[in-house]
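Dear U.,

For the methods section draft, I wanted the exact inputs and outputs in one place so we can describe them consistently. I've listed the two proteins in the order they'll appear in the manuscript figures. Please don't edit the token lines directly; just add comments below if something needs changing.

First protein:
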Amino acid sequence: MAEPIYRRVVIKLSGEYLAGSHAFGIDQPTVDRIADDLIAAQKLGIEVAVVIGGGNIVRGVEVSARGVSRPTGDTMGMLATMMNCLALEAAIERKGTAARTLSAFVMPEISELFTRSAAHKYLAEGRIVLLGGGTGNPFFTTDTTAVLRAAEIGAQVVLKATNVDGVYSADPKKDPKAKRFDRLTHSQAIEGGYKVMDATAFALARETSLPIIVFSIAEPGSIGGILRGSGHGTVVAG
């Protein structure tokens, strides 16, 4: 088995994916399967931090489109990410692996506040660290959160887990002629307007020289495959 090519990573998971085959909510078998993948990745000797979206519970942009202010809608979305973190933390710990949720918000009865030192401490202890609450500010996506947190904690790569196996020139589910890219620069990803991550996330990754690997989470073991360099995804770097 190939040795992992990274030692500290941030994995970005879609909130919608946690709903499984349902339109919304948390599908426990899906959460358990993701927990298994994260534990397997950590057992490769990798320090694993995770950022999760909240779209399976509430999407701030959609809430604000119905009359709620954007800052309030985004705050609701950030709280939804905390629910997902707690669900995944519980699943990981049920399987015998230590995990810890850190929040961008002060909520001591629920979670410890995110700081770089706390993240470093728990990663060094062998815990899977779940980073909830987005950036703590409205107008920023959890994609941007993943890149920001990766830069803050000294991760070597951001793994963007999606429902497609990389970056395409168009939605491959709608356009059979969509071209898949094996590699892009950050600038090409921004200029191409590819929707797999938002431009702010790509721009921050470019500024901090962080590679992003976009891959499909659909197959069990896909995280480990990417970490060993044998997985199928698009590398956005340089």
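Second protein (the one for the lower panel):
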Amino acid sequence: MTDDSVTDNRPWRGVLVATALPLNDDLSVNLDKYAEHCTWLVENGCDGVVPNGSLGEYQVLSPEERAKVVETAVAAIGGQRVMPGVAAYGSAEARRWAEQARDAGCASVMLLPPNAYRADERSVLAHYAEVAKAGVPIVAYNNPIDTKVDLVPELLAKLHGEGYIHGVKEFSGDVRRAYRIAELAPELDLLIGADDVLLELAVAGAKGWVAGYPNALPSASVALYRAAVAGDLDTAGKLYRQLHPLLRWDSKTEFVQAIKLSMDIVGRHGGPVRAPRVPLLPEQEQAVREATERAVAAGLA
């Protein structure tokens, strides 16, 4: 864990990898490989992991599988480094997942707004208030593309002002929001939520990155993040240009398949995906494969 994460007691700071979940050929979860993957990520410079996010295919896991994924990550690298996604259709269920994460030893959780319908502001506030009762620090996850609920800066400031959230994973792609969030809620930690706006949000003052592509390329991705937040734009700019053909897949519908394919190419276990996701089209697979092989040839793997 980076020094500022420890001294500020803000375990969501730094590079937290939204982990892909290794599946066997029969689509069962390979918990042994998952534990090894979490350990490997930390050994390669990442600060922690985010299990049960979209990249971890949480929506298609059984409750038993979902709980075991969290417990496996904690056993592998320690709860301080684990920030599970606790999204659910109902607030009561999301609270139960936050309590499960708390009881497993996690130091924080990540929470989407209500996503079963287009929730209004009062519903969003009530949702975060309910889950906050679990007593574990919450990082909000703003993904208006998928949830159709937009945590705009003004709403984030209200959630923070009520004490419900401590940070936000920003996935809107609108980097201008970083400055408005800093004005309205200067103590709210902004976390980079999409790989392909990393440099822009790092320059704007982001305190962390909930990351996708470190699943395949952790060392190069961490080097990019560290250079970007340190203001070393020569180093960061070069790495960003080299990695961007891959990073932009994090904002595409097929991000899980793309990242898992890159993992397979570099010698990790990405493996298949569960339905309703389907394999990449041949042209998509070719694009990911070529971009990954270029990164490997450039010494970034």
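Candidate sentences for the figure legend, describing the second protein: Strands lie at 14-18, 48-50, 109-111, 138-142, 167-170, 189-192, 208-211. Residues 22 and 37 are 9 Å apart (CA to CA).

Thanks,
Y.
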